[in-house]
């Protein structure tokens, strides 16, 4: 672990990140080198443009949404801590980790936090509800101009109709989870 | 690391009858870590230390007292072992399931713990201090109890024993760095105890939640340290095992990837699928499957029949059947003759006639005639087996293609993108496929919501069927007429016939194949079925058309064969007569009985027409012409058309792309049926022309590439892209039918027709299957012959058939029952879901009339009208509190989903049948008015949290 990246990263910082996110030491150093290689401005933070250089995100229709998830509300830069905090959502769930210390705050990679992360991808205005307009926007990202607006509208309506259980024409986080998406999402996204 | 200590505590406390919460172990753990940190520096021993010392802090003060007990503990441990032997197996089984994961975790945690221990050392206070951080109320009590337990441990022998073991291990640790005997013993004992606990957990009078947590920890412990037991070697072995499991997982994953990469044309098909939808892709998958099947059949035929004859049989030109006759030798290599599979081809290994009738060939004594017959029959058997197995396997994939899931759109919406895609080209395909799948769903949805004039629809469908029946009858008659005419032509001198007259049958059949499918398709427009169902109808109709073709073709063939048989008989007689003349003359002339065989060149020998080869030729010709027609159709119908439309569009008076000719759509039904019937030809013809399968393999190979290219280059996606049924069992069903139909004529010829006397492997036999009889009689031991003669006895066959029929009937009934049960369950699930949904939707009174009615109820009427809005929320909150009272959740996390349902249950209203858009107004209002129930719902929370 005497790599170049780890020299830039102070030990205490690693400890803190480790505590917060649950990544191991080597994972953190590896991610840090990745972080620095992405950081073209070399100012210790990543901008949206930096993320867009990742090919997987550039071609992903929801790439913008994922990139957004890295940035706290109203900010344009993300430092390594924030970067790691977001990445921690993608850490696989470990079973005994949960009951090891139930009183502590839930780890970032818990199932519900993962789901919340996925939910946020669709919840553009962060009001904890996916509205029809938000669905339409996402649909537009995913299918481009190949399907008419009218049909997209009906798709969005149908989606809401399927998932909405309390009749407010929006998909709340609870409904999002209930919509049998749990298993499917977990296998596709994480 | 969840320690063993906790369990003891738990047990103790249980004994005292206290309620224990799951998390008080963390303190002891903390303390343990701190301690271990202080004492030892060797990280690799961490695991053991943790386990050992978890327990020590409690016992520290008492340790001197208990050292004396150490010896007793050991003996005790042995006893325990004996006791546990029976239970161990259970425990092992359980722990094995999660061993892999546990192993991984343990490593990670060990390192984690090390790092965290600094922090934890700050909390180096008595247990009581940290206890306070717990929110549970009974923690205090617990602690007291613990102390109590510690004091009067003499009462509890069991506990004392347990406690003693860690102490002893501590001592030994201090004595030496190596893993000592006692320590090992202790560890072993702990593992045993855990195992015991796992085995007996059922009997403990605890709450389920706690039992689960205890069980999990015990299992983890056992997993982690079972392998570490034993000395250094054992530990290394354990580490090695863990590493190997990791490697194995990685290897398995790589291997899966490799396997996927090895599936031929997978990328091509996926590409087509993403642009044209699963229906078109289903054709290509079917084509690929066919290719695989044919490859195997080709392997059989080539390996067991063709290769032996080529390698070990007599060479070309050695005997008459392997020589082109003198009269044909002038034109034997002419291209026109070869294209008709005459001349040299006719006397090659491709056809039946080439094979010699020697019982055995070569040094291996290979029984070629027997092999020929068995392989031909075996091909049918294998094909039947494979097709039926495929159908059965597809059946449990299930579904007629429509998604029966309730969240079709939600799933598509939220989960369709594959986040692992990193290749722009793949991303393009994924875009296309997402779009396509949405379109497919839209079509399905439209179909579900369609409701029109049912009478008009019925009329249209009936008239469409009448029209199609008429055209089918017409084409049938046309074929019949043409075949009859061709038989007349056959009797005339071939040189006086024009080209058209010679090829009339093929021409008419190809024409019908070209004209009828589009005709049917346009008639089917009348019916207005869902495209998936329409495709099935279309397939069925074209199948009927082709069936007519096939059977007229076969009858024509049989006429021809009968003619050939007569001709053959006369030739046979004349040649026998000539031979006997020769012998008589020779013996008379030289006055000797030793007559050498006539010295005639094989090319000059008089020979019969060899009807089998003629039939084989017909099949090969048909197959080849079929290929030509298919490829030409694609070239002209798709490629040239697309070319013209694309490039003439610049200088044309109307828009070619959007207007009349446009681009072609991929004709699924025609292509599938073409494939199926072609396969039928192969099955039938393989007996008469062993080389036919090889030709077919080539054809499938080229058509795979050619059609993939053509569909991507020249076709446009269907206007109504529809989702193909997941199981292409319909194709398979057609294939099975064709297979069955093609078995009939072949078996008929094998069992009843006399083989040609001078060509093919069965020449000289009365019937073809005599080869089998001959083998049984001559080469197998005598009792086998008797067994076979018994087995072929009608008295045995009839009951066997009866038995099979009964078995089929039974299995059929059983499967029906299962289907019924399945459907019932599905229905139940759906109603349960709908129920829940409706209840939730109607929790707040959205229906004004119901609200009014409710006000009339006696208990509600007491409330003043202005508060009407608040009544539901009040009742809800009351119920809410009541429920929390009746079942006080120790976790205090509020009501979960089940409770919520019951909360809504007493208030059932009219089920919602409207679309959400229309519903959008009132619920919003209702929700706005009653913040309380909304929050209650929110608190319901995800069940998993």
TrEMBL record, chain A:
GO annotation terms (biological process): protein transport
InterPro entries to which the protein is assigned, alphabetical: Calcineurin_B_homologous, EF-hand-dom_pair, EF_Hand_1_Ca_BS, EF_hand_dom
PROSITE patterns: EF_HAND_1, EF_HAND_2
GO molecular function, one term: calcium ion binding
Gene Ontology CC terms, in alphabetical order: cytoplasm; nucleus; plasma membrane
Domain EF-hand: 26-61, 110-145
One Pfam family named in its UniProt record: EF-hand_7
Signal peptide location: none
Coiled-coil intervals, chain numbering: none
SMART domains named in the record: EFh (SM00054)
UniProt entry keywords in alphabetical sequence: Calcium, Cell membrane, Cytoplasm, Lipoprotein, Membrane, Metal-binding, Myristate, Nucleus, Phosphoprotein, Protein transport, Repeat, Transport
CDD domains: EFh
Superkingdom classification of source: Eukaryota
Subcellular location: Cell membrane; Cytoplasm; Nucleus
Family: Belongs to the calcineurin regulatory subunit family. CHP subfamily.
Protein name: Calcineurin like EF-hand protein 1
Species of the source: Nothobranchius furzeri
């Amino acid at each position: 672990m005497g790599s170049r990246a780890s020299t830039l990263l102070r030990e205490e910082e690693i400890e803190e990140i480790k505590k917060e996110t649950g990544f191991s030491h080597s994972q953190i150093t590896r991610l840090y080198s990745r972080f620095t290689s992405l950081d073209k401005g070399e100012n210790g933070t990543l901008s949206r443009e930096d993320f867009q250089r990742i090919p997987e995100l550039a071609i992903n229709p929801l790439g913008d949404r994922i990139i957004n998830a890295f940035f706290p509300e109203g900010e344009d830069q993300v430092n390594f801590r924030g970067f790691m905090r977001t990445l921690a959502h993608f850490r696989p769930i470990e079973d005994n980790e949960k009951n090891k210390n139930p009183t502590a705050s839930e780890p970032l990679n818990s199932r519900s936090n993962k789901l919340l992360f996925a939910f946020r991808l669709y919840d553009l205005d962060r009001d904890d509800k996916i509205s029809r307009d938000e669905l339409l926007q996402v649909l537009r990202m995913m299918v481009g101009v190949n399907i008419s607006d009218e049909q997209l509208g009906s798709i969005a309506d149908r989606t809401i109709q399927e998932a909405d259980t309390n009749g407010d024409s929006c998909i709340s986080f609870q409904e999002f989870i209930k919509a049998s998406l749990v298993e499917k999402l977990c296998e596709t996204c994480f | 690391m969840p320690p063993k200590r906790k369990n003891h505590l738990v047990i103790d406390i249980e004994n005292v009858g206290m309620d224990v919460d799951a998390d008080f172990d963390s303190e002891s753990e903390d303390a343990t870590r701190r301690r271990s940190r202080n004492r030892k520096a060797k990280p690799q021993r961490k695991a053991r230390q943790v386990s050992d010392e978890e327990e020590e802090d409690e016992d520290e003060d008492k340790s001197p007292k208990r050292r004396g007990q150490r010896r007793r503990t050991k003996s005790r441990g042995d006893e325990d072992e004996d006791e546990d032997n029976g239970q161990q197996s259970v425990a092992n089984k359980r722990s094995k399931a999660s061993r892999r994961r546990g192993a991984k975790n343990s490593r990670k945690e060990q390192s984690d713990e090390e790092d965290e221990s600094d922090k934890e050392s700050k909390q180096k206070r008595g247990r009581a201090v940290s206890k306070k951080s717990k929110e549970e109320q009974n923690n205090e009590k617990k602690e007291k109890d613990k102390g109590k337990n510690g004091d009067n441990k003499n009462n509890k022998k069991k506990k004392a024993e347990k406690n003693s073991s860690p102490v002893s291990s501590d001592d030994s640790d201090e004595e030496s760095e190596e893993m000592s005997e006692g320590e090992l013993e202790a560890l072993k004992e702990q593992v045993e105890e855990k195992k015991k606990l796992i085995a007996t957990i059922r009997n403990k009078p605890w709450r389920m939640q706690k039992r689960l947590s205890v069980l999990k920890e015990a299992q983890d412990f056992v997993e982690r340290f079972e392998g570490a037991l034993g000395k250094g070697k054992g530990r290394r072995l354990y580490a090695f095992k863990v590493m190997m499991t990791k490697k194995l997982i990685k290897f398995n994953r790589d291997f899966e990837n490799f396997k996927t990469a090895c599936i031929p044309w997978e990328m091509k098909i996926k590409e087509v699928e993403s642009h044209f939808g699963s229906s078109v892709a289903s054709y290509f998958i079917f084509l690929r499957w066919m290719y695989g099947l044919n490859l195997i059949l080709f392997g059989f035929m080539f390996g067991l029949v063709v290769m032996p004859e080529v390698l070990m049989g007599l060479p070309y030109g050695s005997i008459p059947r392997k020589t082109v006759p003198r009269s044909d030798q002038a034109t034997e290599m002419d291209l026109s003759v070869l294209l008709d599979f005459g001349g040299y081809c006719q006397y090659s290994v491709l056809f039946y006639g080439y094979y010699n009738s020697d019982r055995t060939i070569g040094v291996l004594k290979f029984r070629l005639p027997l092999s020929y017959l068995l392989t031909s029959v075996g091909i049918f058997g294998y094909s039947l087996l494979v097709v039926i197995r495929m159908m059965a396997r597809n059946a449990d994939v299930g579904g007629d293609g429509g998604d029966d899931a309730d969240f079709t759109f939600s799933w598509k919406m939220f989960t369709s993108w594959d986040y692992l895609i990193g290749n722009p080209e793949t991303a393009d395909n994924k875009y296309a496929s997402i779009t396509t799948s949405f379109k497919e769903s839209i079509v399905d949805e439209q179909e579900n919501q369609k409701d029109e004039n049912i009478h008009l629809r019925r009329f249209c469908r009936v008239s469409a069927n009448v029209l199609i029946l008429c055209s089918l009858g017409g084409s049938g008659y046309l074929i019949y007429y043409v075949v009859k005419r061709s038989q007349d032509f056959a009797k005339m001198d071939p040189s006086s016939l024009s080209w058209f007259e010679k090829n009339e049958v093929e021409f008419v059949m190809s024409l019908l194949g070209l004209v009828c499918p589009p005709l049917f398709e346009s008639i089917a427009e009348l019916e207005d079925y869902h495209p998936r169902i329409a495709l099935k109808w279309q397939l069925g109709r074209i199948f009927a058309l082709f069936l007519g073709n096939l059977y007229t073709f076969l009858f024509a063939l049989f006429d021809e064969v009968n003619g050939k048989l007569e001709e053959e008989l006369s030739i046979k007689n004349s040649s026998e007569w000539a031979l006997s003349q020769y012998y008589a003359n020779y013996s008379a002339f030289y006055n000797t009985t030793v007559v050498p065989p006539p010295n005639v060149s094989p090319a000059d020998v008089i020979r019969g027409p060899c009807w089998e080869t003629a039939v084989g030729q017909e099949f090969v010709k048909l197959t080849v012409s079929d290929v030509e027609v298919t490829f030409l159709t694609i070239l002209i119908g798709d490629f040239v058309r697309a070319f013209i439309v694309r490039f003439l569009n610049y200088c044309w008076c109307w828009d070619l792309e959007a207007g009349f000719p446009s681009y072609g759509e991929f004709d699924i039904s025609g292509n599938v049926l073409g494939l199926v019937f072609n396969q039928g030809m192969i099955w039938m013809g393989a007996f008469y022309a062993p080389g036919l399968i090889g030709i077919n393999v080539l054809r499938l190979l080229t058509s795979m590439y050619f059609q993939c290219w053509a569909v991507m280059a020249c076709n446009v996606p269907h206007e109504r892209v529809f989702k193909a049924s997941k199981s292409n069992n319909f194709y398979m069903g057609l294939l099975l039918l064709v297979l069955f139909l093609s078995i009939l004529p072949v078996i008929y010829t094998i069992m009843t027709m006399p083989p040609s006397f001078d060509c093919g492997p069965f020449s000289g036999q009365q019937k073809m299957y005599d080869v089998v009889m001959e083998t049984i009689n001559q080469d197998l031991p005598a009792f086998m012959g008797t067994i076979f003669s018994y087995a072929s006895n009608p008295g045995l066959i009839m009951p066997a058939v009866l038995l099979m029929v009964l078995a089929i009937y039974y299995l059929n009934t059983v499967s029906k029952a299962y289907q019924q049960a399945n459907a019932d369950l599905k229905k139940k699930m759906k109603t349960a879901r709908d129920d829940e949904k409706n209840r939730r939707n109607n929790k707040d009174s959205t229906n004004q009339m119901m609200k009014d009615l409710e006000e009339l109820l006696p208990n509600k009427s007491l409330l003043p009208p202005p508060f009407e809005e608040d009544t539901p929320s009040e009742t809800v909150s009351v119920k809410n509190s009541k429920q929390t009272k009746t079942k006080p959740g120790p976790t205090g996390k509020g009501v979960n989903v089940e409770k919520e349902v019951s909360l809504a249950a007493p208030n059932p209203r009219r089920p919602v049948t409207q679309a959400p858009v229309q519903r959008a107004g009132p619920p919003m209002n209702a929700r706005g008015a009653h913040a309380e129930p909304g929050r209650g719902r929110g608190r319901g929370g995800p069940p998993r949290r």
